[in-house]
Amino acid sequence: xxxxxxxxxxxxxxxxxxxxxxxxxxxxxxxxxxxxxxxxxxxxxxxxxxxxxxxxxxxxxxxxxxxxxxxxxxxxxxxxxxxxxxxxxxxxxxxxxxxxxxxxxxxxxxxxxxxxxxxxxxxxxxxxxxxxxxxxxxxxxxxxxxxxxxxxxxxxxxxxxxxxxxxxxxxxxxxxxxxxxxxxxxxxxxxxx
Length: 193
Known about the structure:
193 residues
């Protein structure tokens, strides 16, 4: 199979992704990923019912993954011999929006997971002096990150970037004492010093 990153929002497909999607015999993906790629789908598209059964799909199927498949995406399901095509991720978009270099950035995901390991990783990376990119969880977002920063005595900017690429996208910068609050469930968070 070919796992294709469709980007974090509209108009964020790479040329390689467009070509793979346009030449696919069949496309599978979430409702949102199919919507993001719909202009280039020339075959039947089907919603994925179970991500754990991707290995049962035809070998020439194109599987759409929002953002980049290798960060909190479907790339983890790729088997040897499968092809993975990168997508423009929320990491890249947020770094560009907030002018943050990738070279001193720790990437953490709590998305769809128990947030406890993400919190531990956040603390560990902050102690190393890293800037942080976080895909949050419902119970581990800007407020909880601000509490961690305050407990550690770290002054930093807390940035949220939501609905990236959509006409109503929103980027907000706050502080430890006044963290920005998300208005959407589709957002990422950055901690920069």
